[in-house]
Amino acid sequence: MKMMTTKKVMTNSTQEHAYVPEHINYALVEDTRPPMYKAMKYWGRKPHNIWSDYITHYCPADGVVLDPFMGSGISTFESLRAGRKIISTDLNPLSAFVVEVLSSKFDKEKFKSAVKSISDAIETDKIYCRHYKRKVNDETLTVYNYIWNKGKVSLVRYKTAEAEGVSIPVDEEDLKKAIEMESINMPYWYPTDKFPQTPSINNNFIQKIGGTTFDYLWTRRNLYILSKIFDLIQKSEESVRLFLMYAFIHTLHLVCKMVVPRGKTGNRDFSGSWGRADYMIRNRSMEQNPLVVFQRSCFDKQGVEKAMLDANKKLPKKKKLNYIDNRHKKLNSSSDINYGVVDIADLGDYVKENSIDFIITDPPYGGLVQYMDLSLVWLVWLKHFDIRFTPDATGEITYKKNITSRSTYKRKLVLAFRNMYKVLKPNHYMVVTFHNQDIKEWNDFVAAISEAGFAFEKVTHQYNKRSGESNVANPYGTTGSDFYIRCKKAEGVAGQSDKMDLNRFVIQRTKALLIERSEPTPFTFILNGLLPDMLQAGYLQPDAPAEEIKKILAPETGEGKTFFVTSNEKDKAGDYYWFNNPASFINHRNIPLNDRVETTIKALMRRKISVRYDDIVAEIFREYPNGLTPDMQGIRKVVAKYANPSSGKWKLKDEVEMECTIHTYQICTLCKMAKKASFEPFVGRREQHEHVDSNTLLVSYSAYKDLGDVLDDYDELQLSRISMMDCVWIKDRKIETVFEVENSTNFIDAIGRASNIDSKKRKFMVIPERREEELKNQDPLFIESFKENTWLYLTFEDVRRLASSHSLSIEDIISVSKSL
Ligand SMILES: C[S@@+](CC[C@H](N)C(=O)[O-])C[C@H]1O[C@@H](n2cnc3c(N)ncnc32)[C@H](O)[C@@H]1O
Q1: Rounded distance, CA 197 to CA 195, Å?
Q2: Which residue, by CA, sits nearest to atom 23 of ligand 1?
Q3: Residues β-bridged to residue 339
Q4: C-alpha separations of 635 from 21, 359, 364, 474, 630 in Å
């Protein structure tokens, strides 16, 4: 992780400290979530390492970060880890609870023994034994769960010493228990709050669960066991109570009537989940044993013990916390974390104007996830545990049919961004995430940011690992990726008056994107490239961007038009868009994106020999941002072509290494020849770090490391392309000639790279003898380009002979070279 990458400068006019960070202009790679973030369910959790990178880049070391929609607290803990102070708040009290749990000191032994005494008390409880113990062949076994089908209990599941899982139809006794449980006497407290008026909880749901209060979310026997565990937690020693409650929270939703059995992989049919963010009873549901789930929530891989040990290890030992809410509004500037239950509408009551160094936040998008409604499953218990955690959803920024109008939602969102704008220091940054799945909300969302006065600086399409890597059905980020919108509190931002008409803009950018990619491109990639561009150019009009963009492209699509569309049967990334007549847009300098990506991956493998897959993806994100990001499966295929997986890394294949050696040897020879011919050789940037022998790198043959130090006639983009050529010969600060060694790679790439050099300059392609026929048989367009750009070719044998002569000139080389 990079630490402090910002520096202070004084602006002349205001004497205000402005920070000039090293910007993040490309997607980053998501790391595996560490245990401390796993012991809790929350919707839309953000990748911790990426947030950490943003925090260290955009908040100075002595600065303060703000996240007023903190959710599960990623920003809180990552700021703390990065040594920054943080103000992290949310309307949902669950967030404050999480902060308190994870920042508390954890005693493993005390926790274990507290869980044991709770377990013992439940194990010997008569009602528990009646419903969750079962005698099988004289052995008393624990029932793990009951499966319900259309309101009737149908299967019972337990484990035996021999079998990992036994699933049998219920018998008379089980049916009797299911009826009998309705009259269980309830001696312990349990929540009886009424369901709020909300579309999340509809009549159909109420009918299915049989009542209008929260206790109906659980079967009577589960409610009994839960209420007893809760009672025991409240009576337990103070030093472990928070952690037990954390495990209890994680248990609640997993033992309610909304749980569905998971697929049958591994022993997963012995666990269920509350998979979708809604209140719904499916036909098939799973009634899980609350004690078993509570114990798992304590000690499993995703349990509290692991989370706490991890949090105690990762977070600084000494930290000062200050809780705030509408009864305690005072921030403490010496606290590391100021956290609490705050409606963003009241942010100004807590945080001073112009006092925040960096805002990173993930606001709600429309009404897609009803955070407060859903969290009530936990909060109805949590508020009884601690009155501070009593929810008040009045200010929630959400859209609910027939309850909160769309315009109220928009107003609240604008106000939220205005409040953030006020508290941010001038010239400082805010990074806001937007979830790609909620694309319909895009327009309101970015309009609210803009109305608040922020200037958009950069939008990065950020791939999400889980969707990109493991969700094979939809690996393209249509569901799982985010936009990271970087804005600045820049006062007096110029208006965007001279905008091009939107239709023209979309068509032009789509053309440019296809030219850049140089290959048929699925619609999702076009959208991912267009949205950031549109936002930066000030186009906020379209109501539903995806559909709107398709509509704009439609008149330009079809026979005889600019684009044509072919359906995509392979995945869900959308239909392919491509030019009807590619040759009128694409020339040889535009190497198809896939080929460029292949070159990058190969070069990286050659440079590093052994690389983590995530590092390869990171390099690709950096070089090919937004609309240029290639598909993830393509990346994996190319990696597998050049490398073998071995102990968690990818290692360069021997044959590739062999080929590298030949390639390196040829470049080295060309450098020696340059010196004989009185030129200064430059070795391509990618090859510079290849080994000529165990002690020497190819760079030691290069007169310059950076072409920018010697060439004056080229702009930065041209220089970066030319720097990718294998060997450039220079004299008097000018390029004399260039060489590309094509031992096995695509000939077209060379032509593309050299297209930034004057077409009249002599260029040489160096190939092994075995490839002569292949070169001669390239398509006519290639041959034409080869000749037009003054290319000649030499074989390895030609180079060997030239290298052995005492003196050398470009004419000598031309005399042995051949044309096509
Ligand atoms: C997309 S979530 C944030 C998730 C978070 N980034 C994480 O990693 O867990 C949006 C959050 O906004 C909160 N929220 C909604 N309306 C709010 C308001 N008026 N004031 C403060 N927070 C609000 C919700 O409770 C929810 O936690």
Answers
A1: 7
A2: 91
A3: 88, 323
A4: 30, 33, 32, 15, 7
CA distances to 500, 625, 654, 767, 786 from 746, in Å: 39, 24, 20, 11, 13
Q: How far is CA 633 from CA 436, 493, 575, 615, 637, in A?
A: 19, 41, 17, 16, 6
Nearest ligand 1 atom to the CA of 362 is 6
Ligand 1 mean position, distance from CA 142 (Å): 39
Q: What would the two tokens of residue 769 be?
A: 């003898």
- Taking only the tens place, the pLDDT of each residue in 241-276 is 999 999 999 999 999 999 998 765 444 457 778 877
CA 464 to chain centre: 3
Contacts of 257 (CB under 8 A, 6+ apart): 148, 208, 209, 216, 217, 218, 219, 281, 285, 287
Rounded Cα distance, 316 and 86, in Å: 14
- Looking at residue 744, what is its pLDDT? 78
**First-to-last CA distance in the chain?**
51
Distance CA 536, CA 528 (A): 13
593-604: burial string, b at 16+ Cβ within 10 Å, e else: bbbbbbbbbbbb
Dist. CA 342 → ligand 1 center (Å): 10
Tell me the chain's radius of gyration from C-alpha atoms.
32
The residue to mutate among 33, 371, 372, 431, having the most atoms of ligand 1 within 8 angstroms of its beta carbon, is: 371
Q: How far is CA 407 from CA 373, 404, 440, in A?
A: 20, 8, 15
Kindly give the distance from the C-alpha atom of residue 304 to the centroid of ligand 1, in angstroms, as a whole number.
23
Q: Which atom of ligand 1 is nearest to the CA of 416?
A: 19
- Tell how far the Cα of 398 is from the centroid of ligand 1, in angstroms: 10
- Choice from 91, 419, 420 to test ligand 1 binding pocket (greatest atom count within 8 A of CB): 91
- CA pair distance 49, 245, nearest whole angstrom: 27
Give pLDDT, residue 485. 93
Q: Is 462 helix (H, G, I), strand (E, B) or coil?
A: strand
pLDDT beyond 90 at 598: no
CA separation (Å) from 424 to 17, 342, 697? 12, 17, 49
Question: Which has the minimum average pLDDT: 60-69, 92-101, 132-141, 230-239?
Answer: 132-141
Ligand 1 first shell, C-beta below 6 A? 42, 44-46, 68-69, 71-72, 74, 90-92, 343-345, 362-364, 371, 395-397
Least confident of 46-55, 219-228, 329-338, 660-669: 660-669
CA-nearest residue for atom 6, ligand 1, is 362
Chain mean position to CA 568: 25
Q: Which of 248, 298, 294 is nearest to 142 (CA)?
A: 294
Q: How far apart are CA 42 and CA 719, in angstroms?
A: 47
What atom in ligand 1 is closest to the CA of residue 92?
Answer: 25
605/177: higher pLDDT: 177
Query: How far does the centroid of ligand 1 lie from the alpha carbon of residue 482, in Å?
Result: 16
**Cα distance between residue 555 and residue 552, in whole Å:** 7
The residue to which tokens 């010997």 are assigned: 124
Distance of CA 797 to the CA centre of its chain: 50
C-alpha of residue 262 to centroid of ligand 1, in Å = 28
For residue 360, report the distance from its CA to the centre of ligand 1, in Å.
Answer: 12
362 CA → ligand 1 middle, Å: 7
Provide the pairing of β-strand 337-341 with 85-90: parallel
* Ligand 1: residue whose CA is nearest its atom 5: 71
pTM exceeds 0.90 for this model: no
In the reported structure, the alpha carbon of residue 273 is separated from the centroid of ligand 1 by a whole-number distance in angstroms of 23
Of 84-88, 357-361, 564-568, give the lowest mean pLDDT range.
564-568
Higher pLDDT, 11 or 389: 389
User: Angle at which helices 747-754 and 780-788 pack, to 10 degrees?
Assistant: 40
